[in-house]
């Protein structure tokens, strides 16, 4: 995108408006001063440059130079010093003044020298360039005071106002800006340090939770799976063996999810870089969930876009839970609404979307079921999605209804975690 031309001279529109107003105000002030204080020098003194109009044009050009004082302060100071030196040399050894002098006590340097000095002190960058600007200010101050002529008190006062005062003001503003920049930098560093400490605390808490889950939960579930397997082999009743087999299968599935969860928690700790995980499974088949939804009277429009890709186990289980929880919420809060489930594969991302239309009038039983929710399901689902590095959004849509949208990475490091530990 091309930058506007005014941005070459100013950082924002406020600076531009101030400088333009300054130039216009100085031009108006000059006209007022000429009207109030007639020029004491004879017009013939400016005949050598073509008349007073040439001096006025030069002053107008120098005034327009104030528009670039923020971007080129040293250049403006050099021009001011050169004009001041030329004025002195032309008056002392030449045909006459270069610039119009209203009063005998007026300093010989240009009246705009104060603004050039202030800009040079405040806006010049670099130590050497700044010291050079101070030398130019000293020269203009000396030429303004005219010590070789034993100047009167009015001349000295005018010289101080023209040069010393803007110099001191510029030094104060420059020091204040440097102090503010230093304080801002310290505040930013402190904020970054707080963020790093908070991130470190979160990583340590994740590691503690991972260790506790690995040492307690995984161990207990492993014992339950072993006991269910032993019961499945030893039981004589077929129903008992079937129930034990289902318990063992459910325990193994729970162990898989626990291993992935513990691995994700541990991956937040600092340590050597891990190899990218190898995708091993696909997003689970959702046909069972869709059939269950249709069985309770909520048909689902299901669609898949893109090329199905393999993902790591933690992502596959998280995707399944997203659709499961979203359909459960539809059954509870929007029974009878139209439901659409979309899975979009795109490179290293998997996007899941479950959207339902505005529900029809709920029956008494459906209303009681909707009122039974605690509201913690979506919050827990969001935490689970963010734990694997995904993005989660749930909320009403403009056309009515509700949408649950999750974007999951295809690859999530889960570390080397086993059930037996």
Automatic annotation (TrEMBL):
<dbReference type="Pfam" id="PF07730">
    <property type="entry name" value="HisKA_3"/>
</dbReference>
<feature type="transmembrane region" description="Helical">
    <location>
        <begin position="74"/>
        <end position="95"/>
    </location>
</feature>
<protein>
    <recommendedName>
        <fullName>histidine kinase</fullName>
        <ecNumber>2.7.13.3</ecNumber>
    </recommendedName>
</protein>
<feature type="coiled-coil region">
    <location>
        <begin position="173"/>
        <end position="207"/>
    </location>
</feature>
<keyword id="KW-0472">Membrane</keyword>
<keyword id="KW-0812">Transmembrane</keyword>
<feature type="transmembrane region" description="Helical">
    <location>
        <begin position="130"/>
        <end position="149"/>
    </location>
</feature>
<feature type="transmembrane region" description="Helical">
    <location>
        <begin position="45"/>
        <end position="67"/>
    </location>
</feature>
<keyword id="KW-0067">ATP-binding</keyword>
<keyword id="KW-0597">Phosphoprotein</keyword>
<keyword id="KW-1133">Transmembrane helix</keyword>
<dbReference type="Pfam" id="PF02518">
    <property type="entry name" value="HATPase_c"/>
</dbReference>
<dbReference type="InterPro" id="IPR003594">
    <property type="entry name" value="HATPase_dom"/>
</dbReference>
<keyword id="KW-0175">Coiled coil</keyword>
<keyword id="KW-0808">Transferase</keyword>
<keyword id="KW-0902">Two-component regulatory system</keyword>
<dbReference type="GO" id="GO:0016301">
    <property type="term" value="F:kinase activity"/>
</dbReference>
<feature type="domain" description="Signal transduction histidine kinase subgroup 3 dimerisation and phosphoacceptor">
    <location>
        <begin position="205"/>
        <end position="268"/>
    </location>
</feature>
<dbReference type="InterPro" id="IPR036890">
    <property type="entry name" value="HATPase_C_sf"/>
</dbReference>
<keyword id="KW-0418">Kinase</keyword>
<feature type="transmembrane region" description="Helical">
    <location>
        <begin position="20"/>
        <end position="39"/>
    </location>
</feature>
<dbReference type="InterPro" id="IPR011712">
    <property type="entry name" value="Sig_transdc_His_kin_sub3_dim/P"/>
</dbReference>
<dbReference type="InterPro" id="IPR050482">
    <property type="entry name" value="Sensor_HK_TwoCompSys"/>
</dbReference>
<feature type="transmembrane region" description="Helical">
    <location>
        <begin position="107"/>
        <end position="123"/>
    </location>
</feature>
<keyword id="KW-0547">Nucleotide-binding</keyword>
<feature type="domain" description="Histidine kinase/HSP90-like ATPase">
    <location>
        <begin position="317"/>
        <end position="410"/>
    </location>
</feature>
<feature type="transmembrane region" description="Helical">
    <location>
        <begin position="155"/>
        <end position="173"/>
    </location>
</feature>
């Amino acid at each position: 995108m091309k930058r506007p031309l005014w941005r070459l001279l100013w950082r924002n529109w406020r600076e531009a408006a101030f400088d333009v107003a300054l130039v216009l105000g100085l031009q108006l002030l000059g006209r007022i001063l000429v009207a109030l204080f007639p020029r004491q020098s004879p017009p013939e003194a400016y005949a050598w440059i073509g008349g007073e109009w040439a001096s006025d044009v030069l002053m107008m050009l120098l005034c327009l130079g104030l528009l670039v004082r923020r971007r080129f302060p040293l250049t403006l100071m050099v021009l001011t010093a050169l004009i001041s030196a030329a004025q002195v040399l032309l008056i002392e050894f030449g045909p006459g003044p270069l610039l119009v002098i209203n009063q005998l006590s007026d300093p010989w340097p240009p009246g705009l020298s104060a603004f050039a000095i202030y800009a040079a002190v405040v806006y010049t960058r670099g130590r050497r360039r700044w010291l050079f600007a101070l030398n130019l200010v000293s020269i203009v101050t000396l030429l303004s005071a005219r010590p070789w002529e034993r100047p009167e008190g009015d001349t000295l006062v005018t010289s101080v106002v023209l040069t010393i005062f803007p110099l001191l003001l510029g030094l104060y503003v420059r020091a204040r800006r440097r102090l503010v920049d230093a304080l801002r930098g310290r505040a930013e560093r402190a904020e970054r340090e707080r963020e790093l400490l908070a991130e470190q605390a979160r990583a340590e808490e994740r590691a503690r939770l991972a260790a506790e889950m690995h040492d307690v939960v995984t161990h207990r579930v492993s014992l339950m799976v072993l006991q269910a397997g032993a019961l499945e082999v030893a039981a004589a009743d077929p129903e008992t063996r079937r129930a034990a087999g289902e318990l063992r299968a459910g325990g193994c599935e729970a162990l898989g999810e626990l291993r992935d969860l513990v691995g994700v928690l541990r991956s937040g700790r600092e340590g050597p870089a891990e190899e990218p995980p190898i995708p091993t499974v696909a997003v689970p088949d959702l046909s069972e969930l869709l059939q269950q939804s249709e069985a309770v009277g909520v048909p689902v429009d299901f669609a898949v876009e893109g090329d199905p890709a393999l993902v790591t186990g933690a992502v596959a289980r998280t995707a399944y839970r997203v659709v499961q929880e979203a359909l459960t919420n539809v059954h509870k809060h929007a029974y009878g609404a139209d439901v659409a489930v979309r899975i979009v594969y795109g490179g290293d991302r998997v996007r899941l979307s479950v959207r339902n239309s505005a529900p029809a009038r709920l029956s008494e039983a459906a209303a009681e079921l909707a009122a039974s929710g605690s509201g913690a399901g979506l919050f827990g689902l969001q935490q689970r999605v963010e734990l694997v590095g995904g993005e989660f959004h749930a909320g009403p849509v403009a056309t009515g209804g509700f949408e649950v949208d999750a974007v999951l990475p295809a690859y999530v490091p889960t570390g080397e975690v086993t059930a037996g530990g």
